[in-house]
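Why do we bother with holo predictions? Because pocket geometry can differ from the apo form. Keep that in mind while you read this record for S-adenosylmethionine.
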Amino acid sequence: MERRPVSEQESRRANGPDWDRYADEYQATHGEFLGDAGFVWGPEGHTEDELRVLGDVDGRDVLEVGSGAGQCSRWVRLHGGRGIGLDLSHRQLQHSLRLDAETGVAVPSVRGTATALPFAAARFDIVFCSFGALQFISDIDVAVAEVARVLRPGGRFAFSITHPTRWMFPDDPGEPGLTATQSYWDRTPYVEIDDATGVVSYVEHHRTLGDWVRLLADREFRLVDLLEPQWPEHHDRVWGGWSRTRGMLTPGTAIFVAELAR
Ligand SMILES: C[S@@+](CC[C@H](N)C(=O)[O-])C[C@H]1O[C@@H](n2cnc3c(N)ncnc32)[C@H](O)[C@@H]1O
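The structure, written out:
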């Protein structure tokens, strides 16, 4: 692993195939926790039923960016919304088709990238990402502009990401993950390189809390909430760097809720 600048093209070329390779393991490991038609906002396990971040989805056009196997959009469909998924990974979308068949709740989904949404302007009432896409993108200003373009006036944009403060710490669920070792202000992406080929195989991008506020404001979004879900008292599930050990002391997830001011 290393930290170095990476372009949007390089990020996409790495992350699409990476998610294709990882999809089977991801769904096998986390599928039950997510629920086939469940809506979980992050490793802390808070659900949309509890948080009600999207507002009423009934009768609304709803786009999920980075939809994976479409669990959240299936929840939207069960609650009367016209949920549609978009994801970069072919294999993740195959899992979505599998869950469509298994649950009988189909989520129309398309393969694409968050920086070029294949939809007409003002097509949706709500766009959301549950740890989907945003932290894998270099051209994040383009992605936020795309969301603003496809939303109707007053439309809602809600997304969960790794809490920006987590970037100060090693991505370790244990005690070492509690000691700050790197600068919060260093936006240099996290990059993994394939040892055999020397090619970039995984990329994650970091923005500070202030960066996100500015990105939203620049596209005429009004921030209506920023949720920092607390680790639940009896929750003891480890997901990557998220754990009870760290979660009791530091926030692991940030959920931004914004609305178009126009
Ligand atoms: C952590 S998963 C989250 C998926 C789903 N929301 C869930 O909770 O399981 C992130 C997803 O973002 C997708 N993704 C990564 N980069 C993307 C991009 N540029 N555009 C669209 N989706 C992307 C990945 O393929 C992956 O399915």
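The beta strands are 2-3, 61-65, 82-87, 109-111, 124-130, 151-162, 190-193, 200-204, 221-227, 253-260.
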